[in-house]
Amino acid sequence: MARNIGALAIIGSLLIITIAASMTKMEEKPVVSNEEAKKNLEMIEYYANKTELTPYESYIIKTGIKRMKRAVAPVEGEKLEIVGGRNDHWCCKEDPVVGKNYSTRSVGELVMVTRSRRRFTRCGFGGWERCSVDVTYLSQEMKYKSVLDTLEIPQAEWVHGCPEEKLFCCRGFILNADVKNCMTQAEVDSLITMLSRHGGEALCLMRMFGVLDRECPLQK
């Protein structure tokens, strides 16, 4: 009896592990390449341009696309640069790592200095004697001093900006893996509404935003 119970327990455990592994495999989503992400964004822009949008939808969608195109995920081998707020929805997990290079140089400047000069003049009774007189005066003189210059040099992985693996969406944005870009919830909602007005390939694009109840004709 005990043996049977033990055997059933082992079989049950194996079944649970197999089902969990199968579910995990089903839930895994293929990684989208940067080139595919760029094409997906181009398709979204295509439908945005051919769809009659309300003023609100037009503002939300087209300003969002414009922002995302400025910070589109680069193709393989290139880097995504974050420079001076240009990519305002990408944030970096760390500050840039830099090395420092020091050098010295001489800097000259004119300064005013006080000098003295001795001269002789006649003195005494009848001016028959010679007396010395110290005279002070101001003159310019070139003074030199050493100045230490510090040059910050980004480490190799930071030369083109924040490394891609350290990027994340700033507050108020959510990452869409299919376009490898950050969107606001308002943009996601407006894009779903826009794509739902079309058939065909537009239904496939809706899957990028978690709408899975529409049949994609390209996957039949």
Could you walk me through the main structural features you see in this protein, from its secondary elements to its overall organization?
This protein has helices spanning 2-27, 34-50, 55-70, 185-195, 201-205, and strands at residues 90-92, 98-123, 129-154, 167-169, 174-176, 181-183. With 220 residues, the chain is of the alpha+beta class. The protein folds into three domains: 1-30; 32-97 and 155-219, no CATH class; 103-143, no CATH class. The strands form three sheets. The protein has a two-stranded antiparallel sheet with strand order 1-4. α3 (55-70) packs across α4 (185-195). The radius of gyration is 38 Å and the shape is rod-shaped.
